[in-house]
Amino acid sequence: xxxxxxxxxxxxxxxxxxxxxxxxxTRGQGKIRGIAKGARRAKSKFGGGIELLSRGQVVFSPxxxxxxxxxxxxxxxxxYLGLRRDLRQLYRAYxxxxxxxxxxxxxxxxxxLYDFFCQGLSELSSGRGWEEFLVFQVxxxxxVGLSPQLSSCGRCGKGSGGRAxxxxxxxxxxxxxxxxxxxxxxxxxxxxxxxxxxxxxxSHAARSPTNEPTYKQGEAGGAVLEDEKGRQAQKxxxxxxxxxxxxxxxxxxxxx
Length: 256
Hints:
The protein is an alpha+beta fold. It folds into two domains: 1-79, CATH 2.40.50.140; 80-256, Recombination protein O, C-terminal domain (de novo design (two linked rop proteins)), CATH 1.20.1440.120. It contains six helices and eight strands, in the order βββββαααββαβαα. It has helices at 87-103, 111-125, 130-143, 178-181, 192-205, 228-245; strands at residues 3-14, 20-26, 30-36, 55-61, 69-78, 165-169, 174-177, 188-189. It has a five-stranded mixed barrel with strand order 1-2-3-5-4. A three-stranded antiparallel β-sheet has the order 7-6-8. Strand 1 and strand 2 form a beta hairpin. Helix 1 runs antiparallel to helix 2 (111-125) and helix 5 (192-205) packs across helix 6.
């Protein structure tokens, strides 16, 4: 029985001189890893191979349980060519693809996350997307149940305003009030501005995906995210992702 779906290639590796293994994040079936035999032949059904970060229609034959499936067809629909004109945006897209691969399980469906991923890649390809890049990371953490608690202390549970929390701790599940921070060794300093922007990103991440940018021009926080607040938010997200995975994503060094 063949399955037809749409998906985005989030990983690929050469399998032989003519074949490849591709990891595709599909909308209806979740992440799949499949072997595309003969994919690298110019006249194959795969058009010379499945490109990383390309979106298209995939046809595959499921395996038994979880494991490699057999990819039988791939029809590219969107290659996000704008990413190839801006290395900074391309590297951000590589990073998001790696996070999707690392944080999702095979054949575990995440339809809304897929829609957010398409939206984020489109924004990055258009030359915008710094906000979408940050929001998608928060949304991904929400989707897999690993988002930080930002409204109250992760240790004592007391409510915390922006200036009351000075640290965030993965081991404690979120921000720490000043009274609890001293008893926790695994933590990262967080400024009031950093906490504020993480809360804004979380608020936007909770919305349904649309064709509109996450932040509109002139909206509070949106116009300055490329600068210091955005860098603070990314530093905190890097810490959270690294702690969740217990290692640094391979493409993290590309971010700037």
